[in-house]
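Why do we bother with a discrete structure alphabet at all? Because it lets us treat a fold like text: something you can write down, compare, and reason about line by line. To make this less abstract, here is a complete entry for NIF system FeS cluster assembly NifU C-terminal domain-containing protein. Read it the way you would read a sentence in a foreign language you are learning: slowly, and without expecting to understand everything at once.
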Amino acid sequence: MTEQDFTFEEQVNGLIEQISAYIEHYHGGSVELDRIEGRTVFVRLGGACEDCPLSPATLQGWVAGTLRQFFPDIVVEETTSC
């Protein structure tokens, strides 16, 4: 299988799962895909990332930074829990 065999959503979700595995292993946090609207990706931070003062850096540095390496035109937003 090649990259073209997967949809945009599948590719994004796979990357987020890999990022989350790293964050879970080393920091006790998590990130999960909530939804995709156009080129905007909404994610939910969990575990140790919840209420962490460094979560904006995690969101923009780790999550958005990694996803933009593959999809430069996407926007990453955090979904807030209600």
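What the structure line is telling us, in plain words: The mean pLDDT is 91. The radius of gyration is 12 Å.
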